[in-house]
């Protein structure tokens, strides 16, 4: 289990991460989302022990991470630009990781090389960006990490490879209870991968929630009444309306609440049109960011 408590990190007076706390349960996938410059990469570097926090505690299975080799053996961090030793081939990098990660699995490495079909004798820096990322996944998963930290992991991978990588991650989470923390801007990609999401903005954690709860809690609603009929007063008394907008005779809303309750409270007024649709993670993200003054686009589409 990853536990981050009241962590702070500043650079030259700029608070990159400000009093952030989060917990990631073993065997789950946590999606760290947020605006540009929100502090996501800084948080991942703090978690992987690359940065020392100014304040707060970070632990994995109750052991502090910073300068703790025992814990670091359980973690693998694939940065937004994966790092390899200069002029090394995949085979040489594999030998290097085998010497520093005690849980390194040669069998898993051979399996992954066969899956991705990379030339292990070619110098990694000569590969394209996407293939370098595939190499990073081969090496990372061969260390059998307990905690895998990923910064924009699917960036540069083609759709077939993205699907393959997602499948491998899900398998390791299911089979060995691997814990994954992913930072991404690609909300559609994390939507079907993560159990939990946290949204950061300006160094702070704005919301942290179970993805299913987050999605089942917020809906897009379209309603219309018989031609010219006004919207009945009181219709929204038992519904929390987050956003309301009229388009011709159709009223578009974003509401919070359980789907059955929202449906019941609107249907009793017998609208001629009534649709209730789930919001995508992308729509929830844009709405939440708008709530804190970040540029909002019209998400009602
Ligand atoms: N090594 C550093 N030295 C100085 N400032 C830094 C350093 N690393 C990050 N920052 C600053 O900290 C803030 C958070 O940066 P960070 O890279 O963590 O954001 P992010 O959420 O990953 O952003 P993006 O989504 O744009 O990649 C930014 O204002 C950035 O300029």
Q: Could you describe the 3D structure shown?
A:
The chain has about 300 residues and is of the alpha/beta class. It has two domains: about 1-200, 3-Layer(aba) Sandwich (Rossmann fold); about 215-290, Alpha-Beta Plaits (2-Layer Sandwich). About 35% of the residues lie in helices and about 30% in strands. The strands form three sheets. A six-stranded mixed sheet has the order 6-7-8-3-9-10, sandwiched between helices. A hairpin with a 2-residue loop joins strand 4 and strand 5. Helix 4 (about 105-115) runs antiparallel to helix 5 (about 130-140). Residues about 295-300 have low confidence and may be disordered. The structure holds adenosine-5'-triphosphate. This is ABC transporter ATP-binding protein. GO terms for molecular function: ATP binding; ATP hydrolysis activity. Pfam families: ABC_tran.
CATH topology of the largest domain: Rossmann fold
Strand content: 25-35%
Bound ligand species: adenosine-5'-triphosphate
Radius of gyration based on Cα positions: 23 Å
SSE order, one letter for each helix or strand: EEEHEEHEHHHEHEHEEHEEEHEH
Number of helices: 10
The separation of the N and C termini measures 39 Å
Largest beta sheet: what is the strand line-up?
6-7-8-3-9-10
Number of domains: 2
What would CATH call the class of the largest domain? Alpha Beta
- What's the total number of strands? 14
| Main pleated-sheet profile | 6 strands, mixed
Shape: elongated
Query: What would you say the CATH architecture of the largest domain is?
Result: 3-Layer(aba) Sandwich
Helix content: 25-40%
| Computed structural class | alpha/beta
Spans where pLDDT lies below 50 across 5 or more residues? 295-301
Domain ABC transporter: 2-227
Protein name: ABC transporter ATP-binding protein
InterPro entries: AAA+_ATPase (IPR003593), ABC_transporter-like_ATP-bd (IPR003439), ABC_Transporter_VariousFunc (IPR051782), P-loop_NTPase (IPR027417)
Keywords: ATP-binding, Nucleotide-binding, Transport
